[in-house]
Structure formats: C-alpha cells, structure tokens
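Predict structure. Chain length: 46.
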Amino acid sequence: MSSAGLMRYFDADDTAIKLDPKMVIGACLASGAGILILNIAFGMWP
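Prediction complete.
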C-alpha cells in the first residue's frame, strides 16, 4: 500500500518495457557499425 501518492519501485515496474542488456549492447554495436560502413561507402571516412 503506497502512501501520499508515492509508489514503491516494484509497483511502478509492472508496466516497464523489459529488455535484455545483451540486446541493447548488440543494437548499439550494430548501429555504430552501420554508421561506420555508410560513412566509408559515401566517402566521409578520413
């Protein structure tokens, strides 16, 4: 039971999007590699 409108962490976590940390790191690496490849392809790489 929360008081004064405050919610506990586990009460607020019910609607959160759950992502695996490995998926987040993989998406970051893939997008970084994609940007690097596009920069090389369009001649923007030094």
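Summary: The radius of gyration is 20 Å.
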